[in-house]
Each structure stands twice: as C-alpha cells, then as structure tokens.
Write a structure and sequence with these properties.
Helix content of chain B: under 10%
Largest sheet of chain A: 6 strands, mixed
Number of helices of chain B: 0
Structural class of chain B: mainly beta
Shape of chain B: globular
Shape of chain A: globular
Oligomer: heterodimer
Order of helices and strands of chain B: EEEEEEEEEEE
Distance between the termini of chain A: 41 Å
Structural class of chain A: mainly beta
Distance between the termini of chain B: 37 Å
Order of helices and strands of chain A: EEEEEEEEEEE
Chain lengths: 111, 113
C-alpha cells in the first residue's frame, strides 16, 4: 500500500520560516508533489520533486530525500495569505494523473 | 485560458437518490481525475480518465461511476446516495499523460440528507 504522513497543524508568525514534513511509504516512487488549499478553495499545485534535492519557487521550496522516504515544504517570509492547508502527494503506482494525498497540514499564520 | 470548471457548485440530495456531477477540463487537457474530499478521510482518488478511457479507479463502491466524452469533459455519477457520500467532489485535469501537475476545479459540494 501507499501512505503519507504529515503533521496535522503548524502555527507560525508573519515573516517567519516554517517547514512542513512529509514521510511516505510507497510500492513504487515517482516523485513528491505539494498542493496548497485555502478554506473553500481548490487545491493548487505548488511544487514537484522527482529527484533528490531542493527545488525553489519564490518564497516556497521543496526538498526530497529518496533514501529517507522524506520530503518537506519550506515556506519563507510567511504572509497571512499563506494560512491554508498543505498536502503532500505521490503518484499512485506509476500513474501521474492519480494522486495519493497526505492528510494535510493546516498552517495558521499569526500577526 | 479558462480553468477547470465544475457544475453544479452546490447540491443537496436525499438518501437513495442519484446525482451526476460535471467537469470541464482546461482546453487541450485530455486527462481528468476525480477526487472525494471529506474531513475524516481527506482527499481520496476516485477515477482517472484519459481519451475517454477509464484507466484507474480508486477504492470506492460500484455506486460511483464516471465517463469521459470525446471533448474531454467528464461526468461522475453516484447512485443510491448515502449520508456518507456528503463531500466535496473535485475534478482535476492534466496537460498531458504523465504530467505531475494537476489543475483542480473548485469542486461540487454535495450534501446528502
């Protein structure tokens, strides 16, 4: 089977840096994706790591270590609008168009 | 380019009824996937369609079905609704087969009473 674990909640203050971890167990691994979802909104793609290392996109970075079955999403210079749920996801057994999602991490950014 | 659209946005049905939800992917996208999102189970994969063919199906009962049309629009149907089917149903499209980036629609909020 496949499963992903991530913390349920994270709290931080504006301007700070926060890291959301994700560990996974998969029968076949093709990469780790991250999605953001605001309350009442649709999940929005943030980043994808197919290879080990760090991918940077503006204030957001994502890291993958295949040997540790671990990845994280790093959010820098936090803003109030970053308050949302963040999901890690893996393609399901070779099908990129079908994703297995973690339970999500709810990030609350405070002034 | 218009995003993924889903209709209706909200729906209230009673137990035992059936419902059909519609999804129009981004123009040019041939892959459509459906997900169910609930507070208890999170985001769960329902089906995936590519070029009118269902390629994958999640662990849901046969009451859940779907199809894709030649213009890539997709519908999903749930028959004999149960209270536990109350959820946000999300549709996602991908720009090509094997794309890891999925574009989600706003979802259809189904409430079963």
């Amino acid at each position: 089977g496949q499963s992903l674990e991530q913390p349920s909640e994270v709290t931080a203050v504006e301007g700070a840096i926060v890291q959301i971890n994700c560990t996974y167990q998969t029968s076949g691994f093709y990469g780790l994706s991250w999605y953001q979802q605001h309350d009442g909104g649709a999940p929005t793609f943030l980043s994808y790591n197919g290879l080990d290392g760090l991918e940077e996109t503006g204030r957001f970075s994502s890291f993958l270590s295949r040997s540790d079955s671990y990845g994280y999403l790093l959010l820098q210079e936090l803003q109030m609008k970053d308050s949302a749920s963040y999901f890690c996801a893996v393609p399901f057994s070779g099908g990129y168009n079908k994703l297995i999602f973690g339970a999500g991490t709810r990030l609350a950014v405070h002034p | 380019k218009a995003g993924v659209t889903q209709t209706p946005r909200y729906l209230i049905k009673t137990r035992g009824q059936q419902v059909t939800l519609s999804c129009s992917p981004i123009s040019g996208h041939r892959s459509v996937s459906w997900y169910q999102q609930t507070p208890g189970q999170g985001l769960q994969f329902l089906f995936e369609y590519f070029s009118e063919t269902q390629r994958n199906k999640g662990n849901f009962p046969g009451r859940f079905s779907g199809r894709q049309f030649s213009n890539s629009r997709s519908e999903m149907n749930v028959s004999t609704l149960e209270l536990g089917d109350s959820a946000l149903y999300l549709c996602a499209s991908g720009p090509r087969d094997g794309s890891y980036e999925q574009y989600f629609g706003p979802g259809t909020r189904l409430t079963v009473t």
